[in-house]
Specification:
This protein is of the alpha/beta class and 232 residues long. The chain has eight helices and ten strands. The strands form three sheets. A five-stranded mixed β-sheet has the order 1-10-9-2-8. A three-stranded parallel β-sheet has the order 5-4-6, sandwiched between helices. Helix 3 links the parallel strand 4 and strand 5. Helix 2 crosses helix 8. The protein is globular and about 60 Å long.
């Protein structure tokens, strides 16, 4: 059997892998077992009782985290010239259209979110092979294809995230940083859970929330006791 490192021993002393914790206790525990030298990301993983291969069981949505994600989100706005100033005023990092599309076709991908307008989607759609595999394609359901570009930029910058169930029935989302207080981590996690709860497909039978885990970069996952969450 492999010998445990000092850090693994410290984690083992504090943390029971087989135990389910309340959301509040899990948020505290996560801070105790995160030992990275950098400010680690905090993630939530939710396994749902849905079959994502069926179109009527695809769970997708957006949520505004009460305390933001804790990371700087680089926003690119692809819009017509009359909307450029609105996008810049709202805090967009990059603004343009044909010039930016050309840059992306050349391999430039130094941004986290694209916001665009319905009127230019024909041009943006051609970028599918570059953006699709990286999950960067704008989508009306995620609020990233809109005429209100300024409002959309503001929401993304202040902590609005979009999520989608993967082919295994799992939703994975980044909900903060290890430097957040346990209360902020728990409140952000609860907002995501509450939003997903409201999106339960009518065709989904049996248990909807199969499991919920909180983790940080390089930490083990902390299992959440679902009965501790009132929004489920």
């Amino acid at each position: 059997m492999a010998k445990l490192t000092k850090r693994q021993k410290e984690i083992a002393e504090k943390f029971d892998l087989d135990k389910e914790y309340s959301l509040q206790d899990a948020s505290k525990m996560l801070k105790d077992i995160t030992f990275t030298k950098f400010d680690a990301s905090v993630d939530i993983d939710i396994r749902l009782g849905v079959d994502p291969r069926k179109s009527d069981q695809m769970v997708r949505g957006v949520v505004a985290l009460p305390h933001g994600t804790g990371k700087e989100v680089r926003v690119l706005v692809l819009c017509t010239p009359d909307k450029e100033q609105e996008a810049k005023d709202a805090g967009a990092d990059y603004v343009g259209l044909d010039d930016m599309i050309q840059k992306i076709e050349g391999g430039w991908l130094d941004f986290d979110v694209i916001i665009t307008m319905p009127t230019v989607m024909a041009k943006v759609g051609k970028l599918g092979r570059f953006l699709g595999p990286r999950g960067l394609m704008p989508n009306p359901k995620a609020g990233t294809v809109t005429l209100e570009v300024g409002k959309a930029v503001g929401e993304v910058k202040s902590g609005k995230i979009d999520f989608k169930v993967d082919k295994f029935g799992i939703i994975h989302a980044s909900i903060g940083k290890a430097s957040f207080t346990p209360e902020k981590i728990a409140e952000n996690a609860n907002e995501v859970i509450k939003t997903i709860s409201k999106l339960k497909p009518a065709s989904s039978k049996g248990t909807y929330f199969k499991s919920i885990y909180l983790s940080s970069t390089m930490s083990p996952g902390v299992a959440i006791d679902k009965s501790s969450i009132s929004s489920i």
